[in-house]
């Protein structure tokens, strides 16, 4: 009965309600875009990275110049390799170190990476690749799809390669078991069935907090690589370290005072050590500032929409003070009066959302909406719509309640006199 009465009120004030209906329809579309933008941005930012940088450091080695004291020019390639092995041995067995590795352009928040094509027979995929020693996965706690870090470590120790599910999907669309699959960076060799064996499947690993690209493959880096990158070329290598959680306090001081002197070997010496979370903050500073600016702009737009919608209902309710007072005189309860006004506003909103949903659906079909970081799924569409409706409901209820709460406390004499 009450709903029927509310529809009668809406019909009697059709002219003003039509303008309000159009405003809500337009505002809801713009609000959905804002909500969707926030949802996509935050979903990507908080999406699992696939690695852990807590208690990790990045060491880089230097190489003595010819003018430096202690420099020797007569070291052979085998001796150079031996020096690196000794450094890694001492580093790995330090009581405060949980794991240590070496890699080339593969560590997070370093600003460099490599990519190339990978082939299996005639199948091809373009992907990032990581050139790392086995314990790299222990340092950053990568996991296989089975949840095991050791599975990845052991695969590299066997000189087998590691790929992610995206690569499996691209190279084995025929359902071939990826474990044992032969892959190669050279197309001709791949078509001959020559190459490396896939030994494990890794969970996806993102580049950073702002990039959703997570496909990679990894192959083992051995000490022989230093035969080609000895001397000054050592700068191209990174030496990531994971410190035991209980020993992380003041580790840098410990490193320079006690550990670094033991890591000098031949012409190599520890040149730099940085805390990876600090690298992350520095590496992503511009993107973080951009995100903060974006969120402030979104907040400003939300406040404007909130004030606009709330203001419309405020003035609308304020203009009906006498009607509210008269209803109170005729025996209606404060809760009943507010309920009718809330229901009226929410019914108008519900009908206004219908064309908005159609417009957004059409824009999605026409690929107007961004799908760079997240596909336009039904879940994304409905989550954005649900948050939009919830925000508009709050705006409408607040816009009605603030002026109406005074009107329902109006004395009957004043209400009748004003009417």
From TrEMBL:
PANTHER family (UniProt xref): ABC TRANSPORTER PERMEASE YTRF (PTHR30572:SF4), MEMBRANE COMPONENT OF TRANSPORTER-RELATED (PTHR30572)
Main location: membrane
Family: Belongs to the ABC-4 integral membrane protein family.
Topological type in the membrane: Multi-pass membrane protein
Keyword Ubl conjugation: no
A GO molecular function held by the record: transmembrane transporter activity
Keywords assigned by UniProt, alphabetized: Cell membrane, Membrane, Transmembrane, Transmembrane helix
One Pfam family in the UniProt entry: FtsX
Annotated compartments: Cell membrane
Organism superkingdom: Bacteria
The ABC3 transporter permease C-terminal domain, residue ranges: 296-412
Entry-linked InterPro entries: ABC3_permease_C, Macrolide_Exporter_MacB
Annotated signal sequence range: none
GO cellular component terms attached to this protein's record: plasma membrane
Name under which the protein is recorded: FtsX-like permease family protein
